[in-house]
């Protein structure tokens, strides 16, 4: 059964989660890359077992769960280890996301992926939706939300695809500079559009 997939992305602090939740309130299933990334290394997962076999038991907490801080320390000081980890996790994450898409029972599915374009995951979707805000708002929202220094947020923004490039690759853009009501009306319009597109897509691919 072919599913119509909307790839939702945006820079840090743009309000992706808020937008995704508004679609969820309209009955649309969300598949979130960040949640899936945690699931594929959860206790008892083959992902965690492979990480343990590679790095040794020191990579786990006393509970047996992944010690993320210890892992982060290793991969940030060693590029080859980061590459090894990405080669393990990216296919697992992609496969799990696609499995979740297939079992979703809404008319279309929203794939929430912070690094949609950076990791080439836009190839998995039918259309892309970017949540956009000014860099100034990104910095102030994120530093307040995560209680971190503005310079740290700027560093993260600079490590992501540029705002211009992201907007160029977007099929649709949601402006999240304003009030919640404004956001809700943008989501409602897009929801109607995606329902129509999903219906056409399904007719074409499931005959």
Report the oligomer.
Answer: single chain
Q: What class, by secondary structure content?
A: alpha/beta
Pattern of helices and strands: EHEHHHHEEHHHEH
Q: How would you characterize the largest beta sheet?
A: 5 strands, parallel
What is the arithmetic mean of pLDDT?
92
Residue windows where pLDDT falls under 50 for at least 5 positions: none
Helix content: 55-70%
Distance between the termini: 10 Å
The number of E-state strands comes to 5
CATH architecture name of the largest domain: 3-Layer(aba) Sandwich
Percent of sequence in beta strands: 5-15%
**Radius of gyration (Å):** 18 Å
Pathway: Cofactor biosynthesis; coenzyme A biosynthesis; CoA from (R)-pantothenate: step 5/5
Keywords: ATP-binding, Coenzyme A biosynthesis, Cytoplasm, Kinase, Nucleotide-binding, Transferase
Family: Belongs to the CoaE family.
Main location: cytoplasm
Can you describe this structure?
The protein has 207 residues and is of the alpha/beta class. It has two domains: 1-28 and 107-207, 3-Layer(aba) Sandwich (Rossmann fold); 35-105, Rossmann fold (3-Layer(aba) Sandwich), CATH 3.40.50. The protein is 57% helix and 12% strand. The protein contains nine helices and five strands; from the N terminus they run βαβααααββαααβα. The chain has a five-stranded parallel sheet with strand order 2-3-1-4-5, sandwiched between helices. The protein is globular and about 50 Å long. The protein starts with a strand and ends with a helix. 28% of the residues are buried. Keywords: ATP-binding, Coenzyme A biosynthesis, Cytoplasm, Kinase, Nucleotide-binding, Transferase. Pathway: Cofactor biosynthesis; coenzyme A biosynthesis; CoA from (R)-pantothenate: step 5/5.
């Amino acid at each position: 059964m072919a599913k119509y997939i909307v790839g939702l992305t945006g820079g840090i602090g743009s309000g992706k989660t808020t937008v995704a939740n508004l679609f969820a309130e309209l009955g649309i299933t969300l598949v979130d890359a960040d949640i899936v990334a945690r699931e594929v290394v959860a206790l008892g997962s083959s992902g965690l077992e492979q990480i343990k076999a590679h790095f040794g038991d020191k990579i786990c907490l006393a509970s047996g769960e992944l010690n993320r801080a210890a892992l982060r320390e290793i991969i940030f000081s060693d590029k080859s280890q980061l590459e090894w980890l990405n080669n393990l996790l990216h296919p697992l994450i992609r496969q799990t996301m696609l499995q979740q898409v297939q079992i979703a029972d809404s008319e279309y599915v929203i794939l929430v992926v912070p690094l949609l374009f950076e990791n080439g995951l836009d190839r998995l979707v039918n259309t892309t939706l970017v949540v956009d805000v000014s860099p100034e708002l990104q910095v102030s929202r994120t530093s307040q939300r995560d209680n971190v220094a503005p310079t740290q947020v700027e560093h993260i923004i600079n490590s992501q695809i540029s705002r211009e490039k992201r907007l160029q690759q977007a099929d649709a853009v949601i402006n999240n500079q304003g009030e919640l009501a404004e956001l809700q009306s943008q989501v409602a319009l897009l929801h109607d559009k995606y329902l129509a597109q999903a219906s056409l897509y399904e007719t074409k691919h499931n005959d």
